[in-house]
Amino acid sequence: MTQLLRVFLAGTALLAMAACEPASHVTEAPPAAPAPPPVRPETAAMYAAQDDGNLTVPAIPESLLTEDKARQLVDYWTEEPVGTIIVDPHARRLYHVQPGNKAMRYTVGVGAAGYGFTGEAHIPYQRDWPRWTPTDSMLAENPEQYGPSAAGVEGGLSNPMGARALYIHNSGGDTFYRIHGTPDPQSIGTASSAGCIRLFNQDIIHLAENTRSMSKVVVLTQAQSGRGTTPPAAQMPTATGGPT
C-alpha cells in the first residue's frame, strides 16, 4: 500500500469517528412557550373601559386576560347560603355563591394581608373609590415608600384600593381584611407583598353591585383550599378496611 493511500485511509477513518461523536458543544434554544389563545370578544368586552361616575376605569389589556382568569359562572357545591362570598386565597379564587350549585368565580391577587385572616365574617358596608391609608406596620417596614402617603390617599384611579372595597367584620369588629380593586391589573392571579384580596376593577364593581350589606364571607385555610370545586361524593374520603 502506498504512503499516499495510507494517509488517505487514515484521514477517512478520523472523519468517520468524528461523525459518530455527539456534538456536545452544540446547544439548541428551548422552544418558546406558546402564546395563550386570544380571549373571546365577549370576554374582552367585560373588561373594556367603563365609565364609573366621573371616572373612567381603564380597559384591562388583553395580554393580561385569559378565559380561565375572566369571571365566569362555574359549578360549585357548598352548604353556604346563596350570596355568600367564599375566598380561597391559596388558589387565588373568589366564589360568589349562586343558586343551583353554581358560583360566580373571580380570579384574585393575594397580598400578604390576604393570608392573615380565615374563618367566617360578614360585610357591613362597602365603599366606592375608597380612601386608603397605609398601616402602621407598612410605615415601619418601608417608610420611604409609604411615608408620603401616611396621611392617606384619596380615592381615584391610582389609589391602591381601586374602584370598590368590601369591608370585612366579625364578632370582634373590623378584621382589617378587605376585598378590593386595584390599579395594577398585572397583579391579578399572583401573590404580592402588600394588600389583601384584590380583583380587576371591572370585577370588583361587578361583585359589589351584586353583594348585599351583611353578606356572609368565608375565608378558607390552606387545608380547605379547593373546597366546593368538586361534587360532594368526590369530596368524601374513600372508605378503607381490612379483608372481609
TrEMBL record:
EC number of this enzyme: 2.3.2.-
Limits of the L,D-TPase catalytic domain: 83-220
Pfam families: YkuD
Catalytic residue positions: H180, C196
InterPro entries assigned to the protein according to its UniProt record, in alphabetical order: LD-transpeptidase, LD_TPept_cat_dom, Transpep_catalytic_dom
UniProt KW keywords: Acyltransferase, Cell shape, Cell wall biogenesis/degradation, Glycosyltransferase, Hydrolase, Peptidoglycan synthesis, Signal, Transferase
Domain of life of the native organism: Bacteria
GO MF annotation terms: acyltransferase activity
Gene3D superfamilies recorded: L,D-transpeptidase catalytic domain-like
Ranges annotated as biased composition (Low complexity): 228-244
Pathway entry: Cell wall biogenesis; peptidoglycan biosynthesis
Keyword Transmembrane helix attributed: no
Family note: Belongs to the YkuD family.
PANTHER family, A to Z: L,D-TRANSPEPTIDASE, L,D-TRANSPEPTIDASE ERFK_SRFK-RELATED
Protein name as catalogued: L,D-transpeptidase
Organism this protein belongs to: Paracoccus rhizosphaerae
